[in-house]
Design brief:
single chain, 260 residues, mainly alpha, 10 helices, 86% helix
């Protein structure tokens, strides 16, 4: 008997396509509910506080140490070429173009994404979503959409905090500890960083990553099996899928932004 069964392959492909179609419909619906969420901004504000404020500590501390490491490593590399005064440029561009949006998104997935998945999964396991449907309340518009837009708004703010703290960490190590000229540090940074080309691209990346991470977290929670084991597996899938999508989208966005 052959191990290959065409019907099994067809069933698996059809199931995956159905899952992708369901995810696409849910994503479009969440995007279309943006106007309604902004009219009830109190719900979105609470989610921005829940997702953003509670992630602020890990984002700030991580940005500080990333700035420390970037300045320390960058100084010894630039010193070989007699360009240690360009340390501010190296730190700022590295954070704005790549490290800030990517690391902030990965930390956001680990901190806020898992929390969203567990929250929605437990609501499903407790039949709260079914109870809302029986009371003619749409769970997508009342529960999922405010959390989605809260995450979309929160991650760019966290990324800006990460970048600012990282640049400050680079200044502490480069200027205060190593002795790089402070005027050269800030002057070359200001001359090299472009508002639209670098800061704008950083904001755009963080918006895309915020939509991706938040949507994956909500989708996994909404589709989780209503058991403790199902919620646990959904939380794990959120971290894995969101991290891989962030890294893949980072390559695509970087290639588009810099004209490959």
């Amino acid at each position: 008997m052959s191990w290959y069964n065409p019907s099994d392959v067809g069933f698996a492909v059809r199931t995956k396509l159905a899952d992708l179609g369901h995810a696409a419909r849910l994503f479009v619906r969440l995007v279309m509910l943006g106007g309604a969420c902004l009219r009830r901004f109190g719900l979105v504000r609470d989610q921005i506080h829940f997702l953003g404020n509670y992630s602020l500590g890990i984002i700030g501390v991580s940005g500080l140490f990333v700035g420390f490491v970037m300045a320390l490593q960058g100084y010894y590399i630039l010193q070989r070429f007699g360009s240690s005064e360009a340390l501010g440029t190296l730190v700022a561009l590295s954070l704005l173009r790549e490290l800030g949006p990517v690391i902030a998104a990965l930390l956001f997935a680990g901190r806020a994404g898992t929390s969203l998945t567990a929250e929605i999964g437990l609501m499903k396991a407790g039949e709260q979503l079914s109870a809302m449907e029986m009371m003619a309340v749409d769970p997508v518009s009342r529960i999922l959409a405010p959390r989605f837009w809260g995450g979309v708004i929160a991650l760019p703010i966290l990324t800006a905090v990460f970048n600012a703290v990282g640049v400050g960490g680079g200044w502490i190590v480069g200027v205060l500890m190593i002795g790089v000229d402070e005027g050269a540090f800030w002057g070359q940074m200001q001359n090299s960083v472009e508002v639209w080309g670098d800061v704008g691209n950083s904001v755009l990346k963080s918006l895309v990553f915020g939509m991706t991470v938040t949507f994956v977290a909500l989708l996994q929670g909404h589709e989780a099996q209503p058991t403790p084991e199902g919620v646990s597996r959904a939380t794990t899938r959120t971290v894995v899928m969101a991290s891989l999508l962030v890294l893949g989208l980072d390559f695509v966005l970087t290639a588009v932004m810099f004209g490959i």
